Amino acid sequence: MARNIADDNFGSVEELRPRFDVYGELPRIDLGADFPTLQRVSKRLQLKLRQLHRYTTPEGVTRLADAFAARECPSLDYETMAYDFAYVYFLQNFWKAALLFHRSTILARTILDLGTGSGATALAYLTSLNDFLREQGFKINPKFEVHVTFLDRSRKQLRLASELLAEISAEWRNLTVFPHYEIAEIADWKPKSHFDVVLMGHVLNENRTHITTILDRAFELADSNARLFVIERNGDPCWEQVQSGVSQLALPYAEGRVAGQIQFFRPLRSRLGRGLSSTESRYVILRCPEEKVLVNLLRKYFRAWSTRSKTLLNEVFTETAEYYEKPFSRPLCGLQAIQKYWEDRVLPQKNIKIRILRVAYTSLDAFAEWESRFAIGNTRVDVRGCLVLRLDSSSQRIARLSEYYGSVKK
Question: Residue 352, CB half-sphere, CA atoms under 13 Å: how many?
Fold first, then answer.
């Protein structure tokens, strides 16, 4: 039930470009009738956040700005910097996320916000979900119930998230929200269930050495047909790693930008050392298929190739699997024949690099476009192709593989 991003048309999407104007020390937004709940929620948030002014310091604000601009983001102690961060960045992150979610909300009963901080991304999603229900004409009595998990390692940040949610929840006239606050590291947390939506707003840039781990964890925590959202500033240095991690996830995705400008006035202008700040952000929206096992099998197949592992083939194919290497040739029949093919064709390859370009899934099939580069002796080989995997539901392994490819030797 996503809006404006069709299930079968995932690609680049350019979003709105409003301008945010600051009056006094905090921004004020004017987006018109399309964002009724956002208008009301923003006013409440502004009043609440304005109270943090007395707890902020010029040194804290400057340190945050320098850290986020650095090529390698240093470790930040949000127990001591929670108020500085929320005062300067909460509304920016909230509005950018809300603009994206206004175009891409899905009906979700369970939401997880990884590295939530003070909750800007999750609260933006709830605000958009409230308007989504209104626009779709839902007549729900009682209100639509949604459980939201705020996960962070900072107790002070989570307390702020709790206070801000309490401040604005009355404006969600179509929602009943059940919040859950978890103090934990993303990698260590063990929930009891999966989630319809997993949010990653401005968390990867601060964890650049763990981007692949966080994306993998988000996929593990997501339910079938779930959505995963990644939001970071357009100029952040994490995007090359994010794109690599997204490719390795092997999920269909959409990407695009939301953009605007914020005019900072005194005293924020003096603290930040600038008067105008771009709010342009990039996003990626990933979609989990109905059968997540197909994603795992596809990834495991490519991992078996890149690591030249015959053992992993046992976890990918059934004993009677058919492997169609070429469209008009007879298939390799059975796991042993596939392993023999691996010995003859894959084991001689060295320095194998594989990139998954695009994927699609049905309930029983996985489709993947890919490219690879490897060496055989002194010859470099570039290959580009597509493959189709057919799932055997009973064994949860691949019963048939068909591939189509071309190669160039250099």
Answer: 16
